[in-house]
Amino acid sequence: MNRIFTRIASRCARLMGEPATFIVAVAFIIVWAASGPILQFSDTWQLIVNTATTVLTFLAVFLIQNSQNRDGAAMQAKLDEILRALDTARVEFVGIEHLTDVEIEKIRDALEADIAGKERGDGHRSVERLLKRL
């Protein structure tokens, strides 16, 4: 089920991002607007575009979120592999994306202070000390 959904979501997201899809959407709106005088700007005429855009927007939100989740997870895995491969990298940072926003912000603040300290010659704090400050 996951593989099927991923395949469908990927294809739909790719299709929705194509220039041709945008052109088709604009053409649909132009045809809809041009048909207004013919249909006397009726409630049905308005309902057509309202329903179509609402349904498409609702579905697009799920497709976009799925795509972002998958891309984010893949990027984290790649970054984790880079951290593991570099001798000078601090592997303690692998998996910090699972911390809370507040914890990550504290780590960022501590790292920025650490960088400022290096520039002043104050030395280099370890990741353990940065993380213990939480």
Question: How are helices and strands ordered from N to C?
Answer: HHHHH
> Residue share in helices?
over 70%
Strand portion:
under 5%
Helix/strand structural class: mainly alpha
Give the strand tally: 0
Low-confidence stretches: none
Radius of gyration: 25 Å
Shape: elongated
Number of domains: 2
Distance between the termini: 40 Å
**Major β-sheet profile:** none
Average pLDDT number: 85
Describe this structure in words.
There is one protein chain. 1% of the residues are buried. It contains 5 helices and no strands. The chain has 2 domains: 2-88; 99-134, no CATH class. It has helices at 2-16, 19-34, 43-85, 101-120, 127-132. By secondary structure, the protein is mainly alpha-helical.
Task: Name the descriptors.
single chain; 134 residues; mainly alpha; 5 helices
Short description:
The model has no long low-confidence stretch (mean pLDDT 85). The protein has helices at 2-16, 19-34, 43-85, 101-120, 127-132. The chain has 134 residues and is mainly alpha-helical.
